[in-house]
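Worked example 4.2. Below are the chains of a multi-component assembly; read each line carefully before continuing.
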Amino acid sequence: MSRWLLGRTVQAGGTFVVAVVLMFFVMRLSPGDPLARVVGERQVSEAEYRQLQERFGLDQPLATQFRAFVSGIVRGDLGTSISLAPASVNSLIKARLPASILLGGTVLLINFTIGILLGVWQAVHRGERLDRWLSIVSLTGYALPSFWLGLVLAWIFGVHWHILPPAGMNSPTMAPDAPWLTRAVDVLRHLILPAATLSIVTIAATIRYQRTAMIDALGQEYVRSARAKGLSIREVVWRHAWRNALFPVLTLFGLWLPLFVTGSVFVEAVFGWPGLGALTADAIGGRDYPLIMGTSILVSASVVAGTWFSDVLHMLLDPRVRLG
Amino acid sequence: MITRTEASFHHWRRSGGWFGVVVLLGMITVALLGPLVLQDPVAQPDIVGGAQPPSLAHPFGTDELSRDVLSRVVSGARISLAIAALAVMLALLLGATVGLVAGYWGGWVDAVLMRLVDGALAIPRLFLLLLLVTMWDHLTIVPFVLVIGATGWFGTSRLVRAEVLRIKSEPFIQAAQALGARRRRIVWRHLLPNAAGPLLVAATLGVGNVILLEAGLSFLGVGGVRPPTPSWGRMIFEGKTVLATAPWASIFPGVAIVVTVLAVNLIGEALRDRLDPKNA
Amino acid sequence: MRAHLALATAAAWLTVGCAPERPVNTTVVIPTGVLATSSVPTLTRGRSQNTRLAELMFLRLAELSPALVTAGDDGFVPALAQSWERRDSVTLAFQIDSRAKWHDGIPVTAADVVFTFERARDPAINAELATVLSSIAEVSAEGDGTVVFRFDRSFPEQLYTATYHVQPLPAHLLAHLPPDSIAGSPYMEAPVGNGPYRFDQRVPGQRLTLLANEDFFLGRPGIERVVFLLAGDADARLNLLLSGEVDVLQSVAAVDVPRIEAEPSLRVIAMPGYTVGYLLFNQRDPADLNQPHPILADRRVRRAIIHALDRKAMVRAVYHDYAEVPQGPVALPHWIRDTTKSGVSYDPAQAKTLLRQAGWRENANGWQRDGEPLTLSLNYPTTSRGRSQFAQLIQEQLRQVGITLELVGLDGPIWFERRGQRNFDIDFSAAGMDPSPSGMQQSWTCAAIGGSNVGNYCNPAVDSLLALAIYGKGDGLATWQAALETIEYDAPAAFIYSPPAIFGVNRRLGNVELVPYGYWLDLWRWTVRDGAAPDATD
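Applying the procedure described above to all three chains together yields the following structure tokens:
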């Protein structure tokens, strides 16, 4: 058990390292001048340009840059942003992380309550007309481009009906010394549209996963015997089968951990949500190597950690995995 | 008494798979034949007039540059479906090759390839695409398709590799080997029929995925489709600024995306259910 | 059932019941796509956003009066300088307003001005600024209150040169810092200025707040707090204005104007902007810059392309009635603009005639010469919505006369890089200009080839006309216009649009004046009308 865990952890570490190296080389070997945005639409003398290159270490050979980069990661220092200098990558990520966690956490919460309930319901009523319609509805949500849905929702609720703020995370006119409840409600109001958009386009995955797991559980021996003992279907589902069907879904949780970190590049862009997704899109547009690497590392780390978490959970809950 | 074929057909019909097939075939037909009868999708007959609402002359209205939205949605279907189909084919090819090589040779080849695939899988595809697409200078459509295909094969390679490993360990293979048959030929002969199902499912779902990705990249303004060629994502991108005053310019391409992606996903789901009928 | 009710109530409370009532305070919120990372002018290079912000915190010695005439000494109004006098044809003396104080309470003195110009004229700090100020021979202080500018020659724009480009900075806080360490100094994080607003705080990735300088010597600002709110997406910014969350939106697209006008609480203010968008023709071969361009070196081809473009219709399509087709590289508010000239006409037949004269022959596939097709590519930044739209219009219009234009939409930095390397056939440029037309020397003279003149246009006649206009006697209006006419004839570029700056403004703001060359310059005179906003009642 502990050997398995150790092996799995080492493997996760290896995967992370490979991902980081891959990203570094994909990025550095592509064309485009990272200083272009700093320089803006102005003429810059050769000397000034060299000075900027020196400042960001871009004049060094690739190997040297890579070494500096690796030693930075080891020290936990992701360097200085180029387009937003003098801000450090660490500070930029730190500033944006709470917004992403709030949005991602809310979406996970919605998916793992409504999604699970619907999945269980559909499994019990599988094959019925409503089950098929719900499947189609959730699949339609899955087929929606998130930015398009976001645009439409922001326009209808934010602009046309005026009932929810169409963008941002705080009301800009809110006094900084307002009571915390007022501020919380304000953030909550801003959260509704982006969270709803992201949930609608992702919830199908949870529903279908739960539905499959539940169908699986309902076919098990003990459920059939419980039914034979005269328990009602409702009792069987909620007392027995559901608990067993929940385990596989919990492992899904790990796979969705990255959602915490990235939110969604599109949804954050459409709603002006100040999270990491929007920061990443900006960083890529501005060819801000250190910042891109910083966010990518964070995302990859969360993907690897999420997979690890879900594997471990899976193994704890289902000992058969160890044998496989 | 229902025969097995009837049962699976019955199930196929109920699961929405038939709906997906009909819609997708209809979409392909329109994409192929539509441009023959419709207006020129790049002509700008009245640029000062701006976007016009749907009418008899323009059933889907016109966009900001006075181009016919219906013709553009139909031409866009060609582009979007072609990109998706080609990219997915490329991804299948790459994935199958890598999977075969890794599974067949095993040993350090397998270890290296799979560690690389693990690493690549740890970078979200959108990030990888954004890195490639925005960094690489000015993308034309061919490299765009290549890039999308080249970032979509990691999962497939694991699928194929697992299948190869499974076949290699089957008793009948080992028996056949003992009888002197060449292992390579056996693996090859058994691989395709066995892997075809999961690959088909992966491909179908991949098509929907690529259509959404293309739209998303175009929406961020970094797609590989050059104006004046319409793609659905580009149309939404160009129409979003007039969403409130001329919603038809971005609603119709959006609906086209939803319907197409839903259709291919329904087909994929139905195929998956058929391979593993207990979920139905 | 009860759960449903509770949910419904909660939802109603979240959406309607608790819509934050706009407190009747005097905050103005301005959304912006890019949050300025530094709001200090002069000492580091910055983008326009920084300049706009700096104008709220730092005063110029004098400002332009609404006629925006940059030549001569008459078109200016006092700001940091209370008055000025001309001692001779090369000497100007400014009297600093004795009431002027830095935000930390220290009085503004002539020494501050001398210090700032010392730094501004140092090419090692900001080469471009140093070039613009190169005609200043010396800046010196006479006591605390008087600062004297001496120029190296006599020319009409001396007062403009001494006032427009540089806002004085506090020497007592900066003089001890070596020039190259200022960029990272704490001062840049919390700058101390002398203007109507002082720096409050910057929340990276979210907002930047300024507070009224209650002791401002020209009067108490009517608005207490100015918040620049970061909203990267243009549609998100518009939605914020339409929903009443922000008060002033800049760079409104013409197509959105009806939506703002439909909102009773909002109004639209349009004014001419200092930008000209043009198709710059490369007259050298991008493959070998020592060779002339195989197609575009011929003036007849360049003129043919312009004749093929219905620029008026295009401008109306994109900017509706707000923009005009510029005559030469001159924006709407420039005082040298000649409104009587109509420039190269829209005349596709003439376009074809010129192409034939240049040796091109038309067949079913378009134009050919010596087996080579008439195919050109147009580079443009995809980040610019207006230019992306124009590019598609231009492509279609050239197709109508048989010219194939390949659109090369590039990510902003790459587009800029290629432009600088002269690696393009046609470049879709948009020049943001100063109120003075003298910047034309940097883009359209032979001497500027290798610098800003990336299209390699060279006509000695234009060079001498421009020199005469800038350094001659009087305002040189006739000379300016002669230069413009020659440029129009030579067609180094197709000048497409001179766009307006359109703003959406909440009606709760009163006395709103916007300045074409520095939007927020008069913001401190704005007021908030209590309860006057129609949306405060619903």
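Take a moment to check your reading of the output against the notes. The mean pLDDT of chain B is 81. Residues 69-105 of chain B form the longest helix (37 residues).
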